[in-house]
Amino acid sequence: MADLNALSEAIIKGNQNLALEITKAAIDEGMAAKEILNQGLIAGMDVIGGRFKRNEVYIPEVLIAARAMKTAMEILEPELAKAGVEPIGKFIIGTVQGDLHDIGKNLVAMMMKGAGFEVVDLGVDISPEKFVEQAKATGIGLIGMSALLTTTMPAMEKTIQAIKDAGIDAKIMIGGAPVTQGYADKIGADGYAADAATAVDIAKKLSVA
Ligand code: B1M
Fold first, then answer.
1. What mean pLDDT value characterizes the chain?
2. Are residues 164 and 117 in the same domain?
3. Which of 29, 104, 150, 205 reaches 20 to 30 Å from 92, CA-CA?
4. Atom 83 of ligand 1, residue of closest alpha carbon
């Protein structure tokens, strides 16, 4: 019988081939897709997220774990769809207008996917209008913005204003190296996270609020 603890360990170690092999075996044995997701893949990403938050592992380990998760998800996703398993939430993310940094934004997107969110990643240099357009088009009520430059931080405030002006009822979370909780409070963001693992915790709180 496929061992979900071993699957979780394979994710933690970033062992792509082993993660794929165990996921495939579990599917072939008829194990519930949700069980494979929660007790194998997400459980492993949870461990990595916690270690990253405590500075016990660094960006490369998180990226390698996320890659293993992505590979396994490619064969698990159709099974989840067949079983009608819904994501735990939906999330739009982008780096704000004028800003091309995407390493942190990508990490947040990966951790969110790892936690079971469906993620729409808009990319970099995203204008307030584009955030508004995508929020309307997808109907997703949780929006994340990343900024790495002090000069692009004001684009976060502009985007929040544009979302409010468009009458969109969305929760907004922000992050990026120069961003602080104080700044988030000042511009009216609903949440702030200093790192990708904390971003998942905040997103879960905002999703149920
Ligand atoms: Co840029 N750059 N850069 N750069 N760059 C910085 C940010 C800088 C601090 C370097 C420096 O001067 N010491 C400086 C900003 C200074 C400032 O504004 N105070 C700077 C500058 C000035 C510039 C240019 C203007 C340089 C130039 O051209 N003269 C230029 C701007 C281009 C533009 O965006 N328009 C530029 C360009 C670039 C590269 C293209 C070369 C490259 C980006 C490549 C890429 O992203 N694909 C780059 C890089 C790599 C950096 C540094 C070295 C690293 C940034 C990074 O990826 N960190 C950076 C210096 C540094 O930080 N040491 C620097 C790792 C990443 C995982 O961290 O993004 O903070 P971070 O994400 C974290 C958290 O912040 C949080 O979670 C992540 C994981 O824990 N987080 C969120 C991020 N987003 C979040 C969203 C959330 C929640 C949490 O909710 C939605």
1. 95
2. yes
3. 150
4. 176
Residue 105 beta carbon below 6 angstroms from any ligand 1 atom: yes
Is residue 69 domain-shared with residue 109, that is, in the same domain?
no
- The 10s digit of each residue's pLDDT in 55-106 is 999 999 999 999 999 999 999 989 988 888 889 999 999 999 999 999 899 9
Ligand 1 centroid – CA 100 distance (Å)? 8
Burial of 201 (0-12, 13-18, 19+ CB in 10 A): middle
Together in a domain, 29 and 96? no
Q: Domain holding 119: CATH number?
A: 3.40.50.280
Q: Measuring CA to CA, which residue among 153, 156, 146, 139 is closest to residue 108?
A: 146
For residue 176, how many other CB atoms are within 10 A of its CB? 24
Instruction: Output the pLDDT for position 209.
Output: 64
The sheet carrying 171-175 orders its strands as: 117-126, 89-96, 142-146, 171-175, 191-192
Q: Which domain holds residue 103?
A: 89-208
